[in-house]
Amino acid sequence: MNTSLKDRVTAWAFMAPALLVLGVFGLFPIGYAFFVSLHHWRVKRGPFVGFEHYHRALGDPLYIALFVLSLGLFCAVRYWVKGKSLWLRVTRIGLEVATLFAAGAGLLGVIGSGDSRLFDAFKVTAFYAVCAIPAEVAISMILAYLLFKALSGKGFFRVLFFLPYVTPMIATAVAFRIIFSPHPSSLANQIGGVFGLGSQGWLFESRSVVSLVLQAFDITQYPAWIDAAFPSMALVSVVLYNIWVYVGYDTVILLAGFSAIPPHYYEAAAIDGATAAQSFRHITLPLISPALFFISLIAVIGTFKAFNHIYIMRTPGARDSVDVVSVAIFDQIYLFHNLAYAAALSLILFAVILGLTFVQNRVLGRKVFYGD
Amino acid sequence: MVLLRCFLGCCALLQGLAGCAPETVEVVPEIDLEAVDPSGAEVVFWYQHTTTREEALLGMIDEFNRTNPHQITVRGEFSGKYSSIYNKMMVSLQAGTLPDLLVAYQNQAVVYHLADGLVDLAPYMSSARWGLSAQARADYIKAFLDQDFIDGAQICFPPNRSVEILYYNMDWLEELGHDRPPRTWDEFAQMCRAARDQPFSLSRNPEYSQGFIFEADASRLATMVFSRGGDLMDPEGTAYTFAAGQVREAMVLMQQLTSEGAAGLLSEPYGDQKAFAVGQVLFAMRSSSGMPFVNSAVNEDGIGFRWNVAAPPQSGDRPVVNVYGASVSVCRTTPQRQLAAWLFIKWFTEPEQQARWVRASNYFPARRSTARELDSYFAENPRYRIVYDLLDYGKSEPSVPGYQAVRRLIEEAMVEVAQGGDIDGILPRLEREANATLEEF
Amino acid sequence: MVTDTAEGAGTGRGSRADGPAAETEDARGSIADTAAQRAAKRRLAAFLTYGGLVVAAVAASFPFVWMLFTSFMTRGETLRYVVVPASVEWRNYVRAWSEANFALYFSNSLLIAAVQVGGTLLFSLMAAYPLARMQFRGRETIFLIILATLMVPETATMVPNFLTVAWLHSHSPIPWLNSWPALTVPFMASAFSIFLLRQFMRGLPGELWDAARLDGAGHVRFLFQIALPLCRAPLLTVGMFTFIGSWNALGWPLLVTSTQTWRPISVALLRFVEEAGAETQLQMAGAVIATLPVLLLYALIQKEFTAGISVSGMKG
Question: pLDDT tens across A85-133, in order?
Fold first, then answer.
């Protein structure tokens, strides 16, 4: 498109202030972090060490290369091998599977030879995301739908649901820390008692929820990996907090999405004899999909970046079962004084978030319905 | 594509600029201390004191500003708890925006010192014009000064100290048939078990009754280990000694008592003090600076029992107690401000000021002659006197870099032990991991 | 529009004016369903709807109820884990207010938020306009780069930004550290706001622009005289989110303020909570005080706020 020079200048001029701020305070840190991560850097700058910190974090470069190259090949196959013929399709699927396997092997190698503390932190972060996001999105969908159907009291409920998000995190996190304390008469235990649940460790409990369930059934002998393979009760308590805070935010956004659906669609469907379930599936869901996609994207980014509340709710009893990657990075800076390693980890985290967003955009973004 | 290249180019440029940015302050050439003139200097002081202590401190700063002969102005800034101050310093060291004076624990000061952020106070102390007289020098409790002398430099200076002591519920103890606090750890264990079986008569929640609440904290472990004649590190300070006998004994006792229900594990901040104040727990082991809180909590909230303090149970004939406390450090700024900061510290630790500070803060003084000014205070506060007499038997925790991280490792190990872990596996592992941190520095 | 006349959903207050007030009839089944059956179904639906909402409301609010109750307790009651206080201790609020000097911190937070919201609205609007309505090379790339800034973890940005601000502080005529510039400027452009505004502006009809062109209006006039008034709703949304973010921001203000001159209320609350460590009732009183303003603000503008989100169109 031919745009006049004047127009182009205007465009950049308009964007200039925002770009300046974002560039200096949003992008420069990435460059700076990269610079720091290439040195030995305690509190003062030390000698240049190249990619040593990345080696420490990610392990053998061979595996890293394998992982990255396989993923690249996978994308290439996806992008270039197109065609309808059976032969092409079989080849494509075969290649995709092969490259995914190779990537998987590379990833396993990285995890095995890299920093185990880092990958434990990623594991905890993954638990956190997997437990929090689907629950959060599902609950807010239901609530938004209910709120949409309700005739009166909408405003009241909206304020109430949004309350957790609006309150300063320091206040709510401290409150939750006290409510979910393992003391037998903490609020959580008192409520649990009403439901027949014995006194629990909550934020102080580092054993996994599955182990606790097994214990409840008097099974005390179980393989050690059960504790490692499932989120701890402390993490689940933090997840509960996360859901509590963000459901209101998601609900408000989804509700707005619901409200924007023109009602004549439903009327038309009703005239055609559609059931409630059918109109939900064919009208509501597609038209709400942009909002749904938006909140799930924000949720993924937010969960991987999460720090403040987790740090406040960390107890010695949880050991390291709530240490997500951001917390591990924080510890590197303030406990181990290793700024360079922390910078390297931050960049790795950034790359992971970028990758996840990209994948999410590709996979789920396709399903979003943008018509109107 | 072009844009991408532009962006990467900008990044590279910025990185280059970042590289050019000054690092922390260069090493200052030797200055002639006697010739420095501190007149009119302004000193920024970061502290962590709150409420009444802060008020008292600010009042004293005010008085100094008014009365000092050099028109030095000290500006006190509350900067958060110890850990917040530490976090801020870490960032400030890189940006070069240091305060002039700040409160720091020894192991924190060591980190600052490694980054050339602090000034060695020894020359100031021995300066002919500005320093301490020989008499004054001797007046300071030597152990405190030594604690702050690390790596060949006096990197901090002690304005006050606290002692970790045992709080005990006298009335309950009498109900259990004892007339004095436990002298040995065996007696302690017996009394804890008795407390578990016989709740305090005045407690409103007799179903929660225990002897003690262990906190997973390095200082608590240190106290228990010191009292058994042991230490956390070897005498040269080169390696951690967690697999040693005394540490093991302390851990075993903790595990035993918690598994028997005679003791619990701390699960929320200040939980043990709170439980002690309402008569649910017989003993508490805490810093002496917690005495005012316990006092008001016990008396104001209705239960009102008699309580007292004592040295923690001991193994030897001479008591050994954990004496700690944050010191103050002077940052490397300008010679004038450094000197001004030192003059403030010197004034602050004079006996008259110390006495005033003691009354307001309930901390313990670093100079012996302060006791002369405190006769009435001792009379009014017999508990304070009890602890004061323990100051000479103090021992301190490690002040090596990386101790911060080791504290965290200790916490996790203690939780593991209290929840029934294998002590003989946990302790060697702890020692290994702790020694690994030493290598990083 | 079909209005619902079932007794189950109606509460006698009539339908509210916000949003589509209609609930379409459940059209399951044929006209052969009796009116009674339909009414019963509507009652059941209403019961489930309100039941679900009430359960959710209780879950959302019980920590606040606890916070509120605790803030009214005496210390003794908190020590004994009492659930409901015996009497209302207003003293806690008085103490919290005076000890923590909340009045000063309130006004600080308000000022900081105002500046940040103003800056964000202006810069984001200006940036979103070319991204939405103008064609130029690199448009999509720039947009993606802007979005990428959303994903940078806080731990990576804290130290470099502090270095930048410290450098600016020593090289600029106005102070940055311990003052409003450091607290507001780094956040004056937000990828999130740019994204929302861009989405909205893409939805504006193209004829608007053509008509303005014919009238001889340039981009600046178009943006500020025509587009801006139309963007009221998303601007309000962006403003609200920015306000909340600014009011509750903790890590950064903690780092850049050491004196109390510009200390915002979040930092004051943190300090207060740490100070009052063993006195839960005071902590909670402080927390309630710090929450009220934002809550009030949200309650006041929530209708427009919701409308703003919806019309900014979470569409493509």
Answer: 888 888 888 888 888 888 888 888 888 888 888 988 999 999 999 999 9
Query: Domain check: are C220 and C117 in the same one?
Result: yes
Name the residue among B4, B97, B277 with its Cβ closest to that of C177: B97
Q: Are residues C187 and C39 in the same domain?
A: no
Residues of chain B contacting residue C167, judged by C-beta atoms under 8 Å apart: 21, 95
- For chain B positions 299-328, those within 8 Å of chain C (CB to CB) are 300-302
Domain co-membership, C214 together with C159: yes
State whether residue B4 sits within 8 Å of chain C by CB.
yes
The mean predicted confidence, pLDDT, of chain C is: 77
User: Which residues of chain A make contact with B94, given a CB cutoff of 8 A?
Assistant: 43-44
Express each pLDDT in C118-167 by its tens digit: 999 999 998 988 888 788 888 888 888 888 888 888 878 888 888 888 88
The pTM for the full model equals 0.82
Q: According to the 3-state scheme, what is the secondary structure of chain B?
A: CHHHHHHHHHHHHHHHHHHHCCCCCCCCCCCCHHHCCCCCCEEEEEECCCHHHHHHHHHHHHHHHHHCCCCCEEEEEECCCHHHHHHHHHHHHHHCCCCCEEEECHHHHHHHHHCCCECCCHHHHHCCCCCCCHHHHHHECHHHHHHCEECCEECCECCEEEEEEEEEEHHHHHHCCCCCCCCCHHHHHHHHHHHHHCCCCCCCCCCCCECEEECCCHHHHHHHHHHCCCCCECCCCCCECCCCHHHHHHHHHHHHHHHHCCEEECCCCCHHHHHHHCCCECEEEEEHHHHHHHHHHHHHCCCCCCEEEECCCCCCCCCCEEEECCEEEEECCCHHHHHHHHHHHHHHCCHHHHHHHHHHHCCEECECCHHHHCHHHHHHCHHHHHHHCCHHHEECCCCCCCHHHHHHHHHHHHHHHHCCCCHHHHHHHHHHHHHHHHHHC
How far apart (Å, rounded) are the C-alpha atoms in residues B91 and B97? 9
- The reply to whether C60 and C151 lie within a common domain is no
> Is C246 among the domain residues?
yes
Tell me which of B5, B46, B301 to substitute to probe the interface with C (most C C-beta atoms closer than 10 Å). Answer: B301
Separation between Cα atoms, residue C51 and residue C53, nearest integer Å: 5
**Residue in C closest to B204 by C-alpha:** C80
C223 and C156 within one domain: yes
Q: How many domains does chain A have?
A: 2
Q: What is the pLDDT of residues A292-319, one digit of tens each?
A: 888 888 888 888 888 888 888 888 888 8
Please indicate, yes or no, whether residues A103 and A225 belong to a single structural domain of this protein.
no
% of chain B residues with pLDDT over 90: 41
User: Across the interface, which of A27, A165, A175 has its CB nearest the CB of C287?
Assistant: A175
Which ipTM value was assigned to this complex? Answer: 0.77
| Residue C147 covered by a domain | yes
* Domain's final residue, options A46, A81, A113: A113
**Does residue A275 share a domain with residue A138?**
yes
Nearest residue, CB atoms, C163 vs list B46, B94, B274: B94
User: What is the separation of C-alpha C87 from the centre of its chain, rounded to a whole number of angstroms?
Assistant: 34
Helix (H) or strand (E) holding C241: helix C232-248
Chain-centroid distance of CA B91 in Å reads 22
Same domain? For C12 and C116 the reply is no
State the CB neighbour count (10 A cutoff) for residue C48. 12
Q: Range of C31's domain?
A: 2-71
CB spacing of B277 vs C254 below 8 angstroms: no
Mean pLDDT in residue range A182-202:
78
Q: Chains meeting A at 3+ CB pairs closer than 8 A?
A: B, C
Q: What number of helices (H) and strands (E) belong to chain C? A: 15, 0
Residue A317 structural domain: 116-367
Instruction: Report the domain count for chain C.
Output: 2
Segment A16-20 shows an average pLDDT of 91
